[in-house]
Design goal:
Layout: H1 20-35, H2 48-59, H3 67-71, E1 75-77, E2 84-95, E3 101-111, E4 115-117, H4 121-130, E5 133-134, H5 136-151, E6 155-164, H6 165-168, E7 179-186, H7 187-190, H8 192-201, H9 209-217
Parallel strand pairs: 2-5
Antiparallel strand pairs: 1-4, 2-3, 3-6, 6-7
Helix pairs in contact: 1-2, 4-5
């Protein structure tokens, strides 16, 4: 491979509008590249610290989001007592141990007491907590606790299935391994029949009837989709 002369190397970009924290992150990233044996001034890496800074701020943007602002009062008094399910919510997060991605699907269900929440808000709640440095167990609990706190339902169930690159790319290097975690609150914890109904609806091929019934009930409210 041909080497790049000093004259050909691209200088690191200088942005005079950077806030101090961005400057520190980018300086730290350049130091990391040096410690790994790389040259942060070469063409392919010259803007890497800037890109990493922007990527990390996006991937951890959940720290800056307020749950109440995300829900935005999308709680509605409705006479509906069946299970509401939103399945297969895609998410991406960063493992706090290695800063490597883990990603997968989240399934959320709740039994309303006297209020329902806009269906679009459930994926947004998942996004708020997944866009932080996380462990899957905490992520699962945070989603369940937030829905229980804001909605006061009869019960909440959250199941998260995820693949962890810290297991696939390093460590045990098991390519087909997945991790599953669950958090059950209220009747989903105390009533085995309710819990089993939810778990049955998560099986491949299930129509997820509970969630579909809820969606058609609120077909005139744009925020629910």
């Amino acid at each position: 491979m041909a080497s790049i002369s000093t004259e050909e190397r691209v200088p690191a970009p200088v942005d005079t509008d950077l806030d101090p924290s961005a400057e520190r992150v980018q300086a730290a990233m350049r130091s990391v590249l040096v410690e790994l044996g790389e040259d942060p001034t070469r063409e392919g890496l010259a803007q890497t610290p800037l890109r990493v800074d922007k990527a990390l701020r996006f991937l951890t943007s959940g720290y800056e989001q307020d749950i109440d602002a995300v829900i935005n009062n999308a709680l509605f008094t409705v006479d509906y007592s069946e299970m509401v399910i939103v399945k297969d919510i895609d998410f991406y997060s960063l493992c706090e141990h290695h800063l490597l991605p883990f990603f997968g699907r989240c399934h959320v269900a709740y039994l309303p007491r006297d209020k329902v929440i806009g269906l679009s808000k459930l994926p947004r709640i998942v996004e708020v907590f997944s866009r932080r440095l996380q462990v899957q167990e905490r992520l699962t609990n945070q989603i369940a606790e937030t829905i229980a706190d804001k909605l006061d339902p009869l019960g909440v169930a959250v199941v998260v299935e995820a693949s962890h690159l810290c297991m696939r790319m390093r460590g045990v290097q098991k390519q087909n391994s997945t991790a599953m975690t669950s958090a059950m609150r209220g009747v989903f914890r105390t009533d085995a029949r309710t819990r089993m109904e939810f778990m049955d609806l998560l099986r491949p091929g299930s129509s997820g009837a509970g969630g579909m019934r809820a969606a058609t009930t609120f077909e005139h409210d744009d925020d629910l989709f």
